[in-house]
Amino acid sequence: MKTIKLKPKKEESLLRHHPWVFSGAIANLPEGLEEGDMVKVESSDGTVLGYGHYQIGSIAVRILQFGSETPAPDFFRRRLESAFRLRSTLGLIREDNNCFRLVHGEGDFLPGLVIDIYGDTAVMQAHSPGMHFERMKIAQALTELPEARIRNVYYKSETTLPYKAKLDPQNDYLVGRYDGNIAIENGLRFNIDWLRGQKTGFFVDQRENRALLEKYAEGRKVLNMFCYTGGFSVYAMRGGALKVDSVDSSAKAASLTDANIDLNFPDDPRHHTHAVDAFKFLGEMDKDEYDLIILDPPAFAKHRSALKNGLLGYRKLNAKAFEKIKSGGILFTFSCSQVVTREMFRLAVFTAAAQSGRKVRILHQLTQPADHPVDISHPEGEYLKGLVLYVE
Ligand code: SAH
Q: Which of 39, 201, 205, 311 has the highest CB neighbour number within 10 Å of its CB?
């Protein structure tokens, strides 16, 4: 195994167990080092700080194990077992709930790896070349997890691996194959299209926020913007909404929403889907038409460079909702942009509220659920922010 030596005084963040080594902290790169290699990282005085995957780019090493001990041959099995134990503790593995995130990258001490579980299928995404090379080992360990009963492992990294690494990953089953794809979340059924859908096919990270929405839905007229698979809509239907409109600019998303409504509430006239742009819909809809609105857009700022425009996007979107929502209405508004902090998001929403002249109170401050844990040494792992607002 090759060794990467750091420049003097560059070991501090690693000693606090932050798992990223930035390229600027490295004194020398050993000869023959290849992207995806497991490397040993040493401080300038030769102390072994940990072991991780090397990659070309600003984050040069993602540490998998801190300290001087080399990762054991059953490293992945142990980490996956520990991740599974946590999900059992969280009470997420039940007859009426069989989808959850098993591995949330750094939050499960497995930087570069994401695994979502849908029944007996695991959908795995590698974000680093190192995890790509380890994929068979990980898939094997998944199927051997006691009690997890994972029979199929679908590998879906065509869009998550660095394009420049030229790894040419093929989205495909590494173990088994399963083409029926219904998962159960809090007793509701969802078609999960991991082959063609966004991310791993479903946004499991909104599970608890959807459950909260259900409690507010009774007797309300609900507008679910950026609905994708219609998660919030299905919960609103079960919560007793008078009507539910789901909006997404993608026709594919609109049909996924229709399918999920049909699966749970066949022929229910309360629901309608609209394949149109969110801003257009909000601009054209009547005032006071809805008294429960969900805004869960894609990340408006994917990188720091897009922060200013992203914040402007959140402000404009929320301003439109404040302008149109009925008095006594409730707004669920989210940002999943990692670079937008909780404070920035709140300020953008506050500015929108001030602009609209509406009186707004915060009822709940939401975040990602416990199966998307944040390693306290790695605050960058926190990304989902939400506010539930009462609009007079
Ligand atoms: N709320 C969803 C996840 C939303 S993902 C859930 O709970 O699962 C973001 C969605 O926004 C995607 O489906 C994407 O097609 C849609 N989208 C992106 N830009 C849009 C726009 N301008 N208008 C409407 N929908 C848009």
A: 201
